[in-house]
């Protein structure tokens, strides 16, 4: 027997019989608070379990977690908290009352939350004929995503219609996809309590991925880390919970005071809380009108977030949504692609719904992105659009980081990347021993071209130099180019360009003295050749700026060798001297500086620093007052 797990939430006006209908369907009274019993009104979320047989597959059953929501206008925020991660809705309308204000508001909230499936139950059909209410419900749903919802007349009191309602629910779930598993589990906490001897327990609807007993999790936005000691689903112990399951987690590492409704239990590494989101906002049936700097209640998951809206662009007929930034009074945790509901500051009216387009936008860079934001808002489920816009914003990113904190799975992202690379919109740059980089193709092409132009310009203006210093190149390319990215960029420029130590150059570049230094260079060469082992002191050899520049070139190119700060010899003279010293020491075994000076027909001014230079080069080794050949 296979099981498929889904979450079903009730919706509808107060006193239309939602809780009574849930009890008739499941045998469980979802009203759990003493105040609810006393007032006979649902105040907070209630829960029950419903088991249905698949209408076409005999070996499949549906395990449905039912969330019963309050219908009173004073408790809309609790209703929204119960519908943040559901798969379908059960709209309840009383036959003797018909469509009422909270009926309309709840339908809107469900649409804003991204719910796409619904069954409508006309309750109290034993008190009034259901026909008028059925017609009103169909009119209410006409033009919405719920227009094709099945409608069933039912009486929880007599049991009439319950079988038909069960059949309608089973038919709806039979055609519903399984709750998405994108490998990014999140449980929005709706209850927190303590079990004696076990510790803190949180409950919620699991979405986005699975959790396993013993797994380490993080509770956002506080960032508290804990281990799952035990798990239950509808009072049954489980080792693993899948998306679409009502789940209770025992987190003994945390105290009751560390947890609250609105927290999110997830895995480490899946994003961080932020103080701002870039968003799109819309409203059913009309263009939304949001005032800049207005204060709002943002209902996301099970949280109620206080926010201020910065309007970036208003709604138009072509783009019937508002683009903006929500700034929160406290850190909020969400994923790009998540949906939310917006209510006014007085918490008396639902203003619209929204989609998170980007979390934690840079403070100075959120404006000027209208085109990319509009593209995401217009294609909230197209991973390719989100990858392309992410790289237009970020320019470049390690492949595992792209859309990591989004509602898209690794497979969806990989397919999107593959398609965008094939189309030439982005490039994939391999790195040895590291994850590949993804970059916006236009930006990457411009960056490579700009780097080449900078190196070529440096060669043209400084032909005597080996190349352009890496630090100078990075500074010229801008702050977006990190040291690590510069290494990757240089590797991509091979074989036309090459890195030589701390400079980069054209692969075929050979330093030459520019015409303005040619005369000084020739004079230096002549002076070094004339007195090979007794040249003038450096300050006399290069007394002015042109000669100093020419000498720097000779040293850089290897034509000359700096023996000490005051002495420069030609490379040819150093090679001859080294050969003579090696020959002498091979013959005599050891020698003093004076003996080497005589052998080379030099003087002490030159010979002492020259022998010390040979020591540094590991040609010779000092042994008391003598020099011997260095081993090897």
Descriptive labels:
632 residues, alpha+beta, 18 helices, elongated, single chain, 32 strands
Task: Give a structural overview.
Helices cover 32% and strands 29% of the residues. It has an eight-stranded antiparallel beta sheet, with no helix packed on it. Strands 2-3-1-4-5-6 form a six-stranded mixed beta sheet, sandwiched between helices. Helix 7 runs antiparallel to helix 8 (383-394), helix 8 packs across helix 9 (410-422) and helix 13 packs across helix 15 (545-557).
Q: What is the element layout, followed by pairings?
A:
Elements: E1 2-11, H1 18-26, H2 34-39, E2 46-53, E3 60-68, H3 76-81, E4 88-94, H4 101-112, E5 118-123, H5 131-141, E6 150-153, H6 162-174, E7 186-195, E8 199-207, E9 211-212, E10 216-220, E11 224-227, E12 230-233, E13 236-237, E14 240-241, E15 246-250, E16 264-266, E17 274-282, E18 295-300, E19 303-313, E20 322-332, E21 339-344, E22 350-359, H7 370-378, H8 383-394, E23 396-398, H9 410-422, E24 426-431, E25 434-440, H10 441-461, E26 468-469, H11 470-477, H12 483-493, E27 497-500, E28 503-506, H13 515-530, H14 538-541, H15 545-557, E29 560-564, E30 567-570, H16 571-588, H17 593-600, H18 604-616, E31 620-623, E32 626-629
Parallel strand pairs: 1-3, 1-4, 4-5, 5-6
Antiparallel strand pairs: 2-3, 7-8, 7-16, 8-15, 9-14, 10-11, 10-16, 12-13, 12-15, 17-20, 17-22, 18-19, 18-21, 19-20, 21-22, 23-25, 24-25, 26-28, 27-28, 29-30, 31-32
Helix pairs in contact: 7-8, 8-9, 13-15, 17-18
